[in-house]
Design brief:
135 residues, alpha+beta, Nuclear Transport Factor 2, Chain: A, 21% helix, SnoaL-like domain-containing protein, NTF2-like_dom_sf, SnoaL-like
Length: 135
């Protein structure tokens, strides 16, 4: 059994744990914990070809995905660090039947840019779920 997420775990200072911690929060439908993993100025791209959105629009996109109540699976393919900036390449999938009965079948390779804060912890600043795919 996976140990419960602790407030002191999120955000993390260990990039090798980032994807696992995100998955644990996502698969617990824990929007508050996920939000602690993002910088206040973070932007996200949740559909291929869309412009990045921040603030309330980004939070609404996260809430929409969580409302499906379909677990995500993911694995980190690469971690690249330059000073206080990091790039994570993550293969992910969300497949199953949503709480509404809708069939969900999404996959992608995310490109996630993170920034290390003064506290030494990493937070998403750009979350591109489809890694720049155009369609």
């Amino acid at each position: 059994m996976t140990e419960p997420l602790m407030v002191h775990d999120i955000p993390t200072d260990d990039l090798t744990r980032q994807t696992d911690l995100f998955l644990r929060a996502f698969n617990s439908w824990d929007h508050d914990t996920i939000e602690r993993m993002y910088s206040p100025d973070a932007v996200s791209v949740w559909k291929p070809g869309e412009e990045p959105v921040g603030g309330d629009a980004r939070r609404a996109n996260v809430a929409e995905f969580l409302a499906w109540r379909v677990p995500m699976r993911a694995r980190t393919k690469g971690i690249y660090v330059n000073g206080d900036t990091a790039l994570l390449i993550v293969d992910w999938e969300i497949r199953g039947t949503a709480a509404s009965g809708e069939l969900i079948d999404l996959t992608g390779t995310g490109t996630d840019v993170l920034r290390r804060g003064r506290d030494g912890r990493w937070r998403y600043i750009i979350d591109n779920a489809y890694g720049g795919a155009d369609d």
